[in-house]
Amino acid sequence: MLMRFFPALAALLLGFSVVHTGWSQTAPGTWNRATWTVLHDGDSLDHAWTGGLTAPQWSPFDADLDGDDDLMAFDRDGSRVVVFERLANGDLTVNWEWAMGFPALVDWCLLRDFNCDGMADIFTSHMNGIRVFENTTAAGEAPSFSAAPLDLTASFDFGSGASELPVICIGMDLPAIMDHDDDGDLDIITFTETATTLYRFQGQSPCGLELVCTNRCYGMLEEAAENNALFIGDDFECSFNVADPGIVAPEVNRTGLHAGGALTSLQLEAGGPKDLLVTDVTYPSTIGVVMESSSTGLDSAVFLDTEFPANLWGDQAVNLPRFPAAFHLDVDLDGTKDLLFSPNTPLETNDDAGVHWFKNTGSEDAPLWAFQDSAYLQRDMIDMGRGAYPVLTDFDGDGLLDLAVANKERHEGIDQTPAFVASYRNVGSANQPRFDKVNDDWIPLSTFQIESAYPAFGDLDGDGDIDVIVGDELGLLHRFDNVAEEGAWPSYVLAALSIPDVNTGNAIDVGQFATPQLLDMDGDGDLDMVVGEKNGTLTLVEQDALGAWSVYTSPIHGETWGGLLVDNLLGINGYCVPALTETEEGLRVFVANEVGRVQDFGVFTGDWDADLVEMNDNVFNLQPGFRAAAAFADLNQDGLLDGLIGIQNGGLLAFEGSEGSTETLAETAVQDAFNPLVMPNPGQEAIQWSAGRVGTGELQVWSIHGQRVHRQSVAGMASGGLDTRGWEAGAYILVWTNDKGAPEGAPLTWIKLPD
Known about the structure:
Blueprint: H1 7-15, E1 22-25, E2 31-33, E3 37-40, E4 43-44, E5 56-61, E6 70-75, E7 80-86, E8 92-94, H2 96-99, E9 109-112, E10 121-126, E11 129-133, E12 150-151, E13 153-157, E14 162-166, E15 176-178, E16 187-191, E17 198-203, E18 211-215, E19 221-223, E20 230-232, E21 261-266, E22 275-280, E23 287-293, E24 299-305, E25 324-329, E26 338-343, E27 356-360, E28 369-373, E29 389-393, E30 402-406, E31 421-426, E32 434-439, E33 454-458, E34 467-471, E35 477-482, E36 492-496, E37 515-519, E38 528-532, E39 538-543, E40 549-551, E41 577-578, E42 581-583, E43 586-592, E44 598-603, E45 629-633, E46 642-646, E47 652-657, E48 667-671, E49 677-679, E50 686-690, E51 698-703, E52 708-713, E53 719-723, E54 730-736, E55 748-752
Parallel strand pairs: 3-32
Antiparallel strand pairs: 1-48, 2-47, 3-4, 5-6, 6-7, 7-8, 9-10, 10-11, 11-12, 13-14, 15-16, 16-17, 17-18, 19-20, 21-22, 22-23, 23-24, 25-26, 26-27, 27-28, 29-30, 30-31, 31-32, 33-34, 34-35, 35-36, 37-38, 38-39, 39-40, 41-43, 42-43, 43-44, 45-46, 46-47, 49-50, 50-53, 51-52, 51-54, 54-55
């Protein structure tokens, strides 16, 4: 009843609840990257467990200083760094250690050698500008970069004298960084901050970063505000420029917000200055811009190929669903630079076919472009498109755990983003798993418009085979029964759309993005459900002997199991995904979250009302990408847990447990519960409170009207007092929070009597 009167407090109490008690265990030990074989159509995937790619940006660089170029991919989706090592035979393999030396990056990253030491440095986005990290790699060591970055500035003169100002590059854009004029230093071309013209920042000294803004209307071209059309020649107008860039057309006024663009500088035709490739955030095509030197000495656009490279020595146009960005590098080591195109946005992209390779069959100065592949390197990965949710189950009864992988969606066109579940049969041995893909679209989800599917497998009807419950984006749960013959690979048909709660008759709805797991939580011999959801909590759903389901409501935590709340990005969601796993100590509560980590909430005691304590906020000690999901099992029969992590980029990462990891951990004592008490109640001028152990966060007091009237730190305190003189008579709610800001223990109501 009180929740109706103060929604702010209701949100605090119901939406954020982590309380600490239960079995406490030490943190997991180490995990090694697994290299288990994965087969697609009989072919082994070279990069199966890379995690997929969404919006990668490509840079060649000599990571190990051995004289040949390795390859770095920075994925804008999740700010991931993946480094591919070049082997002696020219093949590429992921080197996870090499990525560890990179600093935290956002938006974009290009590797360029600015100081002529033969080592590529990091150029990256920072507050709509450009930041540089110098390469400090030592011979024989993994790549490393300076801890103190340099924020790029340039000399600007708009007519009132030169000023040193930040180099401008909007975070969603991608600049062109190279020696554009072949004078031995790096130049930079970016879109302007609010318009659709181009800045050119000219390098002033070889092996340095001194820059001058020489043009704000570079190339005498302008992108339209309403689409990706370019104006050149007589159609071009420059309304504002630096002092004396050359002859500028009469001033005009243009409006429109620059929504995003990507630039690449290279030679498209023999002779003349470097040309440009220009793309726009809302279009699938790339525009080739041929430049010539004008009589004023300025580079000017003279020809546009709006379907590049179809009309500039290519066999077809680039066609990525949205915002392609071009990267000029030698893909096949033939001595001539090719082009890779990838989306420069994670939104509405062809997630699993987003690296298009055009081979240069001509020369550097006179290129000829031949399309080669739409999924370069991706083709050798498990890449489900958007999102990847792994589940390990023995589907065929051979004693080996097989693999199912679901996704949020796969982009197949405008308003065509179906969800899929792929299945992999384990054709390896007890000591060495080997996964062979059986099918891509295993469960008939699209027939019933089920989106953002997450499967939970188990025998629901007692016939000895594996059925499935699928959670969806709306927070609903759907049942599919296995109708395959005994011993055959499962085949699923819908048994119940939107499973109802037997107590209400309404569909069970946990919120949004339901992620169920089937386990016998009460020991009665049938399977119950633990269901994660968008708000970052878990819900218990009990199955009775007749197969009916009901949401469990705790007298302490309501529908939030154990008061659990996972970590999140903005303090709002969490996208909780359960991965409860049987260990020697009992059922261990692993939960994956929105930020890409897996949290450990200890061992389930069997008490559905008990608090769940966070024992480790990062089980794998890494954050590989956003929107994680996880699965644990001993896949190689060494007595240690192994693990799979799926991430938003559409792929999986695989880990083998080593000595000291979760399976071998020892129990410690039970931690005291945090059970606050208030005396006297009712009271007048003061109150005293005490709890079963010291607090870690704050004490907050809320009035019956939803106003917070008091707030103080209680970190390290197991008891305390409050002076309540001057408070209005009435009811107050006392809430203790932990060090993450989530309520700890049950809230208490205190009655203030008139003074």
